[in-house]
Amino acid sequence: MTFSPSQPALEAAHGRVSHREFLPGPLPRERIEELLAAVAQAPSAYNIQPWRFVVVSDPDLKDRLAEAAYGQPQVRSAPAVIVLTTDMRDVMAHLDEVANPAMGEAGRQGFVARVQSAYGALPTDALETLGASQGGIALGYLLLLAASLGLGTSPMLGFDPAKVRALLGLADHVPIPALVAIGLPASAGMPRHRHALDRIVTWR
Ligand SMILES: Cc1cc2nc3c(=O)[nH]c(=O)nc-3n(C[C@H](O)[C@H](O)[C@H](O)COP(=O)(O)O)c2cc1C
Q1: Among protein residues, the one whose CA lies closest to atom 6 of ligand 1
Q2: pLDDT per position as a tens digit, 75-85
Q3: Whose CA is nearest to atom 19 of ligand 1?
């Protein structure tokens, strides 16, 4: 049976591909804000929301970002590149911000204590790995939501994290789960190629 998606999220999942060439011209800030406001709705463990976004559209900075991304042409071609970072140090210093008011004040205090107890003693590396894994959720949201808004994206791990950190003034402890070039696509991406379900799913 052929699967025919009929819901917007399914259409985005089955329709999106990476785009590596973009139309010239700026991407209005409002469109990026609309996208990131939706991406920020992603769920995370304990609702920690460790994702932080640096939107780079300044041409000179983008040129230098392209160098840090081993010259990948989509960084220069795209009107903007979203640098997705996660920062667990920031999260842990502001747990009150993510404690849901619906819990009530005592519930919020209990929540903060539980997260401190779960994550507070982790070594920096383990903490940041945890944050980066949650960042992957935001990345998935970003790619899907951009597609549903008619925007093309090129997610990238091909970059030198130390150079990107230096360029953007990011702290050493901050992981960068991906760079995402974004804009109106100028060409079709590669045709989709995916595992069949029976290759990746077992039923017990
Ligand atoms: C986290 C991540 C990192 C990636 N890094 C790069 C990259 O550095 N350069 C690139 O051209 N494509 C990169 N890709 C794109 C993948 O090659 C692409 O998603 C995959 O081949 C599936 O194709 P599709 O995105 O067109 O569906 C990356 C994708 C992801 C999700």
Answers
A1: 156
A2: 999 999 999 99
A3: 18
